[in-house]
Every structure is written in C-alpha cells, then in structure tokens.
Amino acid sequence: MIDLRGKAALVTGSGRGIGRAIALKLAAAGAAVMVNDLDGEPCSETHAAIVTAGGRASQFHGDVTAPEFAQALVNATVQQFSGLDIVVNNAGYTWDNVIQKTTDEQFEAMLAIHLVAPFRVLRAASGFIREAAKRESAAGHRVMRKVVNITSISGTDGSPGQAGYASGKAGVIGLTRTLAKEWGRYNVNVNCVGFGLIETRLIQPLTAEGAKIDVGGREIPVGVQPKTLELVKSLSPFGRAGTPEEAAGAVLFFCSGLSDFVTGEVLMCSGGMHF
C-alpha cells in the first residue's frame, strides 16, 4: 500500500483525463490535492469526486501559461495545506500541423504549455522547497519531496505533424534532469513520465464536426486521424491504447516513497510502443 497521508500535492490540468486520474490516485493514497484546470467546471468535478470519496482537496482554476499564475497557484497550495510535497506538471494539449503549415503562434503555444508553464511552476515552488528543506535538515530530518513532469513518446522519438508538441515535451526532459541535479541537496526527486497513446479526448477520431478545445479564445480541433489512430495502436504489443488510470499508476510510483533514490529519470508508460 502506498501511503501519502500528510502529503500535499499540486496537479496541473487535473480536471480531465490523465490529470484527473492522477489527482484521484494521489487522494486515494491519502494526499491532500490541489486540483487545477483551465476551466472551472471540470476543476470542480474532480474536486467533488475526491471529497465525495472521503479525500481532501482544494481547487484553483486558471491558465498555467499566464505569467503570474504559477506563483499564485503555488501560494494557494501552500496556504491551503500548510505545505507542498508533490508537484505534477501535467497540463497540456496538442495543436498539430506539418512544419510548413505551423505558425509561430502555434509553435510557441506548445512550448508555453509543455515547457514554460512547468518551469514557472517549479520556479514558483523553489522558495518554499528550499526553505522547508533547510529547516528540516537543521532539525535532523530528511523529508523527500517529489516532482513529476509529463513528457511523451513524441518528445523522445519525434512524431510527424508535432514539431511544437514534440519540442516542448523534449524540452521538459532537459528541465527535469537539470532540476534533479539542482534539487538533490533539498531531498527532491525530479522525474518524468512519458506517455504513448492514452485514451483521452485528445486521441478521439478526428472529424470535421469533432470536439474542439477553447484555449485563450482559440478553438483548436482535438483528435487523431482514424487511420493514424489504428496504425499507432498496432505499434503497441498490447494492440490498444492505455487508460488514464494506467497512466496515473506510473506517476503514482514517482510520487511515492518507492522512488526515494530515483531521480532524473524518464519512465515510459507507452505499452511498449515505439515509432
């Protein structure tokens, strides 16, 4: 049994999909969870699901790519739970196109959500983490804290049509490995989980009438071409996509004491898929 009682966790993008599954798993293990999402309604739904199940949670919705938001989110977490032990940088979305059709706005939007936002969240958390570690060390205690950044098989292997997404997801691996070296002195494990094909709204079959997400007033189609979806599934030895709960399990490992001597690593949760 993984026991996270007494731990405070912040999970960005936890209103839906994988982020919601991560928040629920952390709460079920005993952590108090700050739920964050761009939209208020899914944020409230995840918060309610945790509380209804007997867990402890708070919520703070808003855009993690806004320059001042990360500090406000971290401050709210520390104030609500009197601490911060686990940070999961999960928020993200896809906005795909081949490079000749990719605009500067599109490319920069992918870097903003997948690389700049995690950087800002961790920079915002650094003050609390450093001061807490110093106090604990002076008292003769070692308290392990956890950072889990989310990458993708697109970031490790590349993926056609995803120059921006793949670049952001590759960049967050560099951020992870750098902070693993900077924050080891503060007893922080900093790792990445990389996902392959996971059953969320982002991989539904793409159609002209299909789902769109609203990001900063932009309507962005989400989904994957049906033929591509079947091809990618065939690349997995399991012949299927993973579930959000399976994806969250890999994150839970890095949030637990089982990973206390693991840092700067990338764990691929892809069902064995390789491009």
Protein model, in words:
- By secondary structure, the protein is an alpha/beta fold.
- The protein has a single domain, classed as Rossmann fold.
- It has 8 helices and 9 strands.
- The protein has a 7-stranded parallel sheet with strand order 3-2-1-4-5-6-9, with helices on both faces. The chain has a two-stranded antiparallel ribbon with strand order 7-8.
- α2 (40-52) links the parallel β2 and β3.
- It is globular and about 60 Å long.
Helix content: 40-55%
Order of helices and strands: EHEHEHEHEHHEEEHHE
How many helices in DSSP terms? 8
Profile the largest sheet: 7 strands, parallel
Give the count of structural domains: 1
Shape: globular
CATH top level class name? Alpha Beta
**Which strand order spans the largest sheet, edge to edge or round the barrel?**
3-2-1-4-5-6-9
Structural class of the helices, strands and pairings? alpha/beta
- Spans of at least 5 consecutive residues whose pLDDT stays below 50 are none
